[in-house]
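Appendix C reproduces, verbatim, an entry submitted by the partner laboratory led by Prof. M.T., so that reviewers can inspect both the input and the predicted structure.
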Amino acid sequence: MMTDPQKLIPLFERTYWIIKQQTKDLTHSDSVLQLPFRGNSMNWILGHVMASRNNMLAVFGEPPALEAVQADRYQRDSEPVTHADDAVSFETLLAAVDDSQKRIVTALKKATVDDLAVIHNEEHNFTVGDRLEFLHWHETYHVGQLEILRQLAGTDDKII
């Protein structure tokens, strides 16, 4: 089945909206709060989402939205962020989310079904579309974790 880039746009718009809602009015200190059990902070999750979005941008030949040296802190299997001084600022992460969103949507608007049918990984026979679909699924997994972390910050509100 071929991936239609136009159908990916509303999916990325939805996760972007959720990120914006769940992070609204929170501070850098809020973003590094740690759950009382094994898990990641909001800062780590947003940084990890940005590391993934950098991969999406690379698929389109675009430069990263979050500097590689900053994104390295949030790669898979990296240690949790537990202190404010061990993290990229929350404001920087949110600005990178905004920048990446604009550029991903722009790239998808220009892309064709044929562009996304190109093989991205020959070993696994993954197309560009397969890669983007996986990266979006991965993003939804982590964006869903933001709700409890917003509440951990003491907001006691209902976003969704």
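The mean pLDDT is 95. Additional entries are available on request from the coordinating office.
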